[in-house]
Backbone:
């Protein structure tokens, strides 16, 4: 919905330009990939591919050390693993630049930084045997939700990182869906509690009954119907990234565009309004990387959480539930099995990770080490990765808590 609005605005804007006007799209930085951004800012970068047990090939981006004094190559550096949110990628941790983006800050703090990419996104749109664009393979390739990301993708990437770095533990930071998949992994694969020094959930999504986004609330009751119709017409991928969509985002949202505020308001309609903390100059670069693609099941699964009020596995319908789960309703995730130290970081103006729902999550987690409400009453869901003052408002506190559990 966001992208359709942006593309329409871009077309209208381009038609409104005088024919003789030479038109340039933003700066070079507006169209860089994750690796290119890291290189642009002079940091070392590596790309690695982890294979899941069910054959997905996941690209991870690594900044092995930073540029701050004393932050160069060294053995036994502490490892930080960052996992993005829904429709996003590793670029989320990079796009606002070295002074503010978490990946660079951690690298300069002395961490070996790894950024994961979930199956189906721009950097992990690959499989050993299935082609996501092949008509015959498509239904199988895209037949996953964030449940599979939690039980297959995160373990595969974490295992790869630990094996490559020769470390036995790492620190995990997730945003939005990156927190949901964390809770899935730690409850369904409890052995992974033992490899996390600490885990930090930014805008945690598990319970969603009280979310405030009018866009999501309007669509959620029809999610299963829309899922059925999408399946009938063969729509498996949700908001894939492509050049047309990237161009639409840049044209409509760049500085000087007549439609920039339309972009901003459509974005806030889902996440919560915080005009002061969104750097509009960075919008084209952000929207070059978002959306990064997902399965429609990921969207439907979140809608099911809102509709049911429970944090539970994918609802496949009465008969299919009986076959898969042995019950007419899907099982709830056993949050009591999560023993790893968990930090919760949330905002009072987040229309997706609403305070009441985070409080419910906190009450069911056995080992909460940090319960931090960002001290700014307009802090919304996307501010956790893109806010102008995210470093002083959040990341400084986050890094200090990470340091406490680094040994």
Residues:
């Amino acid at each position: 919905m966001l992208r359709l609005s942006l593309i329409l605005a871009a077309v209208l804007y381009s038609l409104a330009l005088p024919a003789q006007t030479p038109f340039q799209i933003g700066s070079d930085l507006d169209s860089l990939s994750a690796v290119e951004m890291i290189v642009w800012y002079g940091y070392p970068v590596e790309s690695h591919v982890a294979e899941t047990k069910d054959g997905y090939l996941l690209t991870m981006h690594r900044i092995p050390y930073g540029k701050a004094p004393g932050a160069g190559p060294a053995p036994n550096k502490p490892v930080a693993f960052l996992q993005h949110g829904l429709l996003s990628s590793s670029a989320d941790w990079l796009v606002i630049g070295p002074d503010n983006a978490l990946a660079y800050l951690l690298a300069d703090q002395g961490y070996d930084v790894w950024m994961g990419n979930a199956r189906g996104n721009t950097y992990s749109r690959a499989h050993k045997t299935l082609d996501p664009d092949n008509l015959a393979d498509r239904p199988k390739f895209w037949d996953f939700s964030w449940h599979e990301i939690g039980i297959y993708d995160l373990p595969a990437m974490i295992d790869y990182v630990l094996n490559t770095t020769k470390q036995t533990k790492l620190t995990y930071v997730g945003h939005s869906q990156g927190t949901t998949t964390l809770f899935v992994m730690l409850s369904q694969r409890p052995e992974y509690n033992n490899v996390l020094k600490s885990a930090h959930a930014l805008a945690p999504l598990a319970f969603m009954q009280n979310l405030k986004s009018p866009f999501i609330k309007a669509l959620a009751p029809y999610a299963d119907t829309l899922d059925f119709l999408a399946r009938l017409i063969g729509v498996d991928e949700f908001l894939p990234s492509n050049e047309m969509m990237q161009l639409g985002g840049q044209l409509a949202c760049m500085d000087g565009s007549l439609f920039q505020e339309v972009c901003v308001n459509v974005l806030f309609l889902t996440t919560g309004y915080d005009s002061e903390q969104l750097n509009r100059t960075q919008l084209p670069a952000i929207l070059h990387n978002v959306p990064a693609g997902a399965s429609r099941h990921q969207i439907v699964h979140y809608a099911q959480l809102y509709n049911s009020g429970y944090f539970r596995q994918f609802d496949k319908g009465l008969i299919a539930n009986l076959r898969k789960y042995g019950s007419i309703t899907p099982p709830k995730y056993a949050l009591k099995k999560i023993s790893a130290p968990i930090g919760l970081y949330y905002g009072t103006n987040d229309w997706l990770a609403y305070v009441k729902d985070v409080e419910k999550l906190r009450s069911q987690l056995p080992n909460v080490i940090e319960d931090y409400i960002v001290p700014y009453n307009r802090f919304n869901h996307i501010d956790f990765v893109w806010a102008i003052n995210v470093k002083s408002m959040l990341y400084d506190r986050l890094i200090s808590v990470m340091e406490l559990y680094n040994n």
About this structure: The two ends are 45 Å apart (CA to CA).
